Structure formats: C-alpha cells, structure tokens
Amino acid sequence: MRERANERLVYDAYLVNSERDRVSPICSLTLLPMRYLLLFFLTSTVAVAQNPIIDSLRRELTKLPTDSNRVKTLHELATNLWWNGYDSIAIQTLRQGMKVAQQVKYPTGEIRARLALARIEADYLSDTKSAHAQLDTAQQMAITIHDLSLQGQVFLRRAQLYENIMDKLPVARTLLDKALQKFKQAPDRKWEAQAYNEMAIMKMGEGNYVAAINFWLNAQRIQESIGDWKGLRATLPNLGAVYIKLNRYTEAMACFTEAEKVADRLNDTMIRTFILSRKGEIFEKKGEYATALPLYLQQVKAYSNPYLPGNLARAYGAVGRMYIQLNQYDKALHYTKLSQDTYRKTVEKTQEAMEHNAQANFGKIYLALKQYDRTVSSAREGLAWTENVREMRPERTEYLRQLSDAYDHLKQPAKALYYFKRYKAEADTMLNEEAMQKATVASMTFDFEKKQQVVRLQQARQQARIQLLENDNLEKTRNFLIVLLLLSAGILGFVFWNNRRLRTRNEELSRKNAEIEAALYRGQTIERKRVASELHDSVASKVSALKWRFEAFDTSQFDTDQHREHARLLEHMGEVYDDIRAISHNLMPEILEKQGLQAALIKLTDTLNVQNRTRFLIEVEKSGEDVRGKTAYELYAITLELVNNILKHARARQADISLFRQNGFLALTVQDDGQGFSLENQKDGIGLQNIQSRLERLGGTYLISNRDQGGTLVNVQIPMAG
Q1: Is the peptide bond before 306 cis (omega within 30 degrees of 0)?
Q2: What's the DSSP call for residue 665?
Q3: Virtual CA dihedral for 359, 365, 369, 373, nearest 10 degrees?
Q4: What is the pTM of this model?
C-alpha cells in the first residue's frame, strides 16, 4: 500500500455536503472492533462533550422533528465526530441519518450518508466489498434523481477506494476525470475543487510535483473565490507539503501560516497536527534530525488517543527515520516494526499491503548494520511493489539506491552499476532544475494574479464611491431646486455653480483613475522585463555554459551507453535553453515595444512557420504600426493564446491572422481549417477565460464560431481611441 494514498488527513475537505452548506472537514480513522464499541462510547463521551460544535448539534437534534433537516443535522454531527477522532460513533450517526432519510423519502440525504460511509472505508480497506455496495446503491439513486453532482461524488469516492490498490490506479485516474466532468456540468464549484485535490494527490504520488502544484492552485483559486474555508483546510497544507518536496521552504511555510489561520477559524486540531509533521519534515530535509524528532513524537502521542492507526503508522515510521539518522538503530528498528504492524492491522485480509514508511526504513537500518543480504531482500520486496507504478516513483527511487549500495558492499559491481543507473534516472527525472523553475513561475504567476485582483477590487470600490458621491449630491441638488425655485434666481445660480464644482471633481477623480491604471501597466511592464531579463541573462547563460562544458568532455573513452547518455544530456540541455529563451521572449517581446504590434505579429508568424506543421498567413495592411503599449501587449498575448489552441487542438493545415481597422474598432481575426471547436464548452477553458479577462481591461469583445467549410473563426474587437 502506498504511503501517499493513505495521507488522507487533509486530502478530503468534505465528508458530507448538506444543502444548508454546513459542511465540516474530516480526518481519516479506522473502525474499532464491535466488542469494544460500548467501552469506546463510554470513554469518548466526556471528550466529545467538550467540543462545543458537537454539543450544539446534539442539542439541536433534540428540537428537530423527523424530517430532512434532521437528516442534514445528523450528517453534520457525523462529520464533526469523525473530524475529532470518533469514527465508530460517526458511523452509527450516519446509519441513523440513512434510516431517517428513508423514512421521510429524502433520497439526497440517503445518498450522502452512503457516500460518507464509503469515504471512511477508503482509509483503511477493512471492508471494501461493503463500501462498493454502498456506492453502487448511491450511484443508482443519484441517476434516478438526475443529480449530476452526486453522480460525480460517487465517481470520486470509488476512485479513493482504488487509489490504495496498485493495479487499480489507472481506474482511479479515469474515475477522477469522470467526476471532474460531472462537477463542471452540474455545476458544483466546491466539488470541482475537491476533484482537483484528488488529482493533485495522484500527481504528487507520481513525483510530478509541478502538475500537483497547478492542480492545488486551481483548487485554491476556486475555494478563495467562493469563500470555501473548509476546502482551504485541505488545499493549503497539501500545497505546503508539495513545496517541501521541491525544497521551497519559504513558500511551504507561507502555506502553513495561512493553513493555521484556517485551522484557528475552524477549531481544527487535526490540521495543526498535520502541519506539525510537515514542519518536522522541513527540519528533517535540512538535516536537523534532533529538532525534527520531538515533533514526530508529538504526532505519535496525538494519533494514539484517539487511536488513528493509519496516521499513527506513518508517525512511527517518521520516528524510525530520525533514529536511523541519529545512529540509534535499536530504537529505529523498534519504531519501524511498530509502523509495519500498526498499518497491516488496519487492512482487510483480502488486500495485500505494504507500508513503505516501514519497508524503506528496514533497508536503511540493514545497510547501517552492514546486513547487506537483508537489505537486498527488503529492498527487492519493496521494489516489486513499485515497478511500473508511476505514483510510486519516490519509493522506487529509494529502493534502487539501497540495492545499489548493498550490491556494491557485496562486491557485485555489475548489479550495483545496474541499480545505480536506474536510481540516477529516477532521481534526475523526479527533481530536475526545470521542474523547480516551472514551480517557481507557477507560484509567482498566482501571486501576481492575486495582486492584480486586489488592484481591480480597489478600483471597483473607488468607482463605487464616486458613483455614490455623485448620486448623493444629485439627490441633494434636486431637493434644493424645489425650495430654491420658490426663493430667487440668485439661489438658482448657486445651484448651477455647485453642479459645475461637482463635475470638476468627478473629472479630477476620473483623471486620477486613468493615472492609476497607467502606473499599474508601467509596473507590470517593468516586472515582465525584469523577469524576462533574469531568465535570459542569468538562467539561460548558465544553462548554455553548462552545455558547453558537457560538449567539451573527452568522449573518446566512452562506451556506447555513455555516448548515448552524453548525447541525451546535450539534447535535454538544448531543450531547456530553448524553453527559457521562449519564456523570456513571450514575457515581453522586444520587437513589440520598439516596432509595435504589426511587426511583432509578422515575426511571430515567421517563427511559427519554421517549426510547425500548420502554416500561418498574416494580413495586417499597416493596421498595427502605431498600436503600442498596453493595447499591443494584450492583443499579442491574446494572439499567442489562440495560436497555442490551434497548434494543440485544431489539427489544421493552415491558419490566417488578420489585423485591420473598421468603424472605430481595431479587429483581430484568427481562423484555421482544422477540426472545429466545441461551442458547448467554450466558456470552460482557462485559456478563453484569460482572453475574456484581457478584453475586459481593453473594453473589447470576442466571438467564436465554426466555419462552414471546417475549422474555427475567432473575431476580436476593441474600441480605438478617438
């Protein structure tokens, strides 16, 4: 069983989703044996009663009749019980809610109870047959009542069951794609963000941290836009955890700081415990093992009462890792065995299970104790679990390293070299410099977009204040006129003077708004130039220098494999260098600033026609010679977005770009002879949303249509200044 799939503490923001939007975050727990249920209930009642939310929900239940509101309250109570570690009582509460829903003929409530029961099972796999039966029933009911969101939730819950089973991972990915489509069709923004969360988990398991970051950033954007605090409790800590994988500790700590604010808002102790472990991981990666150890021991204590075996197993494994680094191998072996035993007790007998926290530790301990044969046995067993499973790349990399070291000490150089080469290939793929650069750009882009949103919000508020001031003064003027008409023409003169003063003030405010907008654009331009310059002058030059040094290697003594690897490295470096140059150029093309939009579009088409199958034709007729500044940059960026769509999706042989003036408007037309465009989903794409946002800043519009002769036609119009 893969470690990452079991880290469900903050990967799922919703156990149930009541129609009153009273959803609470949850944590992952395991069922206690039934013979201990009564004793558990008695010992936990005191602790549960100390939770004000649970106590309030119980009081509310005493006042509610047997109706749909009672079902929703039972769901919410179950959520908070599970969230606080009392999963057996949560399950009893969900079953009670299911019975009430059946009595009052409230199918939505029954479906959500079944989904929640299946979600609990996804953490420990003690009775997957029952969980799938719950989901089968929930799916049929959701189809019957035509609820697209609930249908998507069934797909998502089933994917969570499959994420813990190696040969079911492809099925899990397919189910998540189906779930996302259902949530978009519904539409249900909260659950759409939850689907991105699950997809990010899968990508993180593959070692594809950049893709994971982008999925979590998508989830964060949605949750912040709709004020979904309970969703952010999952997203922010996970985003910090993946930044740790890329050694981006500053970004990770920023995420944890925001997550702690959410935890305080929701009184969520589980999130605080999770953040505690991630801070321990930072100390661990920095080599400060003595500092990390007490944090992991605090986790062991937190997960022992209430008893959370899945999380406790990982905490034991982390403590074992620290003792390995501190050369205390007896304690390391003790905690590693506790990790393995605790984990395997939670998994049903029909499921084979391997706890990689423990398995990787065993190999490290045996290496340190010079028991190389046991290292080989342990590492080969772990490697067999991870072969051809892309979600297990980090674990597979560790097992390959252990095998290489063990065979080297066993004086078997051929096997040692074989596993070392595989280890290097996996490690280089997982943590290369290009991934770190792209992750940094993704983070920077998100922060920049947030700053722009703040500026636009401030401008909107200022405009609203102007409008309010104008309306207020006009109302006063109207009232004055009624009285002043009865007095004298002199008072009328005062009114006219007052109106002129108001117009002057409004004109001044409008001018200041224009100055603010111009300053914002200048700041954006300076920042784009700075980033482009740093990419081109610093990063690109270093990559180029590195490539020259590799080209200067004496390869006369290389064998065939080494020549091939040398050539591959040179090719990759060339691709990285080209990517950096392309990014820096697109941030702020020099020709766009110096010669205007027309010259930039001509150069763009010349470049495209060198490297692509699609042939691009351009017609400008000097329409864009004098188009510069903000308008030129936004139209150039829109053209890039449309060209990228053609190259990626259209399968076109020819595309036409035209720029012309007509009736006081500047018109940009991009068309192709490809396979056309799905008009039903045209507003769902992020690229089209970016185009809409840019046109709003210019006061322009766009229209997408399919051509009669095949292909897509996009018309963009912006008003020209008088």
Answers
A1: yes
A2: E
A3: 20
A4: 0.50
Rounded to an integer, what distance in angstroms lies between the CA atom of residue 335 and that of residue 355? 13
Q: For residues 235 and 216, give the distance between their C-alpha atoms in angstroms, rounded to a whole number.
A: 6
Per-residue model confidence (pLDDT) at position 677? 77
Tens-digit pLDDT profile for residues 35-78: 233 333 333 333 444 567 788 888 888 888 888 899 899 988 88
DSSP line for 177-241? HHHHHHHHHTT-HHHHHHHHHHHHHHHHHHT-HHHHHHHHHHHHHHHHHHT-HHHHHHHHHHHHH
> Could you give the domains of the chain?
52-145 (1.25.40.10), 594-719 (3.30.565.10)
Task: Summarize pLDDT for 664-677 with one digit per residue, the tens.
Answer: 888 899 999 988 87
Per the document, the length of the chain is 722
CA separation for the pair 664, 641 (Å, rounded): 25
What lies within 8 Å, CB to CB, of 104 at 6+ separation is 66, 67, 68, 71
Q: What is the pLDDT of residues 596-636, one digit of tens each?
A: 888 888 888 888 887 778 899 988 866 666 787 778 888 88
What angle, 0 to 180 degrees and rounded to 10, lies between the N-to-C axes of helices 269-285 and 309-325?
20
Digit-coded pLDDT (tens) for 134-160 = 899 999 999 999 999 999 999 999 998
80-112 per-residue burial string, b: 16 or more CB within 10 A, e: under 16? bbbbbbbbbbbbebbebbbebbeebebbbbbbb
**What's the pLDDT at 442?**
56
